[in-house]
Each structure stands twice: as C-alpha cells, then as structure tokens.
Amino acid sequence: MIEQICGATRKEVFDYVASEYGTQPEHPWMDLPEYAVLRHPGGKWYGVVMYVRGDRLGIGGEDFHDILVFKCPPELHPALLARKGFLPAYHMNKLNWLAVLLDGSVPADEVKGLVDLSYSLVDERARRRRG
C-alpha cells in the first residue's frame, strides 16, 4: 500500500475519525489485517476501509486499491456514481452503501464530509431505536 499525497488516504481517514468521533479502527478479520471497521459507539458500522483488487471492484486489473465503504442515502447514489472515484459498495448492501477510492481522485475534505454523513445516518438510527 502506498499512501497518496493528494486526496484522502486511509491514514487521513483514521486520523479524522479518531479526532472527530473518538473512533479507533477495528481489525476483525485476522486474515485481512488491512481491512478496518469504523464503528459507532452504538455498535453499528459507519465505514469500512478495505484493500481490494481492481477486478473485484469492477475497475479491472490486478492492482489493489484502498477504498472506504460508507453509508449513503440512495437518492445521492446516481450523482456520486457518475463521478470519478466513486463505486458501488464492495461486499455491502449496495442500496445503502457506496465506496470511494482513497487514491487522491476525491478531495480529502469531501471524503471527510462523506464520513460525517455516514456517521450521522448511523447515529440517527441509533437515536430512533433508543428513543
């Protein structure tokens, strides 16, 4: 894995969620140490950082790519998927989740905004259940 100079990297995502939400990445799969779950205090996931081969993402090739899979309202999917750097969610429900490449193609501030959106969607669901 090579950290990118521009745009968001996995390290930048991890630093952001630690400072903003107190989240530390969890690595639940021993055989996939580069996969990390971002978990809301209520226990729900609001993001997953993965290192996935291009052909599995639908972008072709055998090179691996860092991605962030995040929760997103379905009405935003068409606009985001029309842009470079966004993909259908890998290994998650494609109705409620999308993926963004962490390769510099999407500015870091925008990726942070998507993390915030995903966290707020999970937080909103947690509040409704408690409430």
Automatic annotation (TrEMBL):
Pfam families: YjbR
Molecular functions (GO terms): DNA binding
Keywords: DNA-binding
InterPro entries, alphabetized: YjbR, YjbR-like_sf, YjbR/MT2646/Rv2570-like
Protein's recorded name: MmcQ/YjbR family DNA-binding protein
